[in-house]
Amino acid sequence: MKMRWMTLLLTLGWALATGYQVQGEAVYEARAPLGAFQGVNPTLKGQVVFDLTKGQLQGRVCLDLAAWDSKEPLRDRHTRDMFQVDRYPQACLTVAGYDAQKGLVQGTLSLHGVEKKVAWPLRYTLAEGGKRVSFEGEFELLLSDYGLKAPTFMGMRVQDRVMVRVKGQGVAQ
User: What pTM did the predictor assign?
Assistant: First the structure.
């Protein structure tokens, strides 16, 4: 009897762990001496598994670094040059967990050949009985943490600190 109960609990636990195909966008906001500007990248894609019973989140989401659009072609070329997209075409977050009390997604960001552990604020909403999830978050990123040298224009350098916002949705597989 005890073994049947354990099997039932394990089966329910696995049924509540849902895999999601994720897509979305990232927006950066950077500052330079002459003002702020932003760029949008609509290529956020990946897969995650979310276990409702344990609040665990795992998976991987990536962004094509050549796809930034700031509505200024020269700035976008400088951004691609900074990222060295021919050598490092993607930034990827390997998701290792979610701290529900603090609202933080935890994982390792791989950017420009550097891997760094991160914990960023992320809010999510489940819909359609868990078949869809919407998410959004905002965090600061230091370019120098990833060996990136901020671009310059007319002798003025972009600040090292960049604000990044992500939003998207996941559809259950």
Answer: 0.86
Supply 41's token pair. Answer: 């990248």
- Looking at residue 67, its amino acid is A
Cβ-proximal residues to 22 (8 Å cutoff; 6+ apart), any chain: 44, 45, 46, 47, 48, 59, 61, 168, 169, 170
**CA gap 124, 162 in Å, rounded:** 23
| CA atoms of 68 and 106, how far apart (whole Å) | 24
Q: What is the pLDDT along the chain (173 residues), one digit of tens a residue?
A: 443 433 333 333 334 678 999 999 999 999 988 889 999 999 999 999 988 667 789 999 999 999 999 999 999 999 999 999 999 999 999 999 999 889 999 999 999 999 999 999 999 998 998 899 999 999 999 999 999 999 887 778 899 999 999 999 999 99
Checking 152-161 for CB contacts under 8 A at 24+ apart, the result is: 153/32, 153/74, 153/75, 153/78, 156/32, 156/33, 156/34, 157/32, 158/30, 158/31, 158/32, 159/30, 159/31, 159/32, 161/31
Residue 36 CA to chain centroid, in angstroms? Answer: 22
For residue 81, give the nearest of 144, 152, 165 by alpha carbon.
Answer: 152
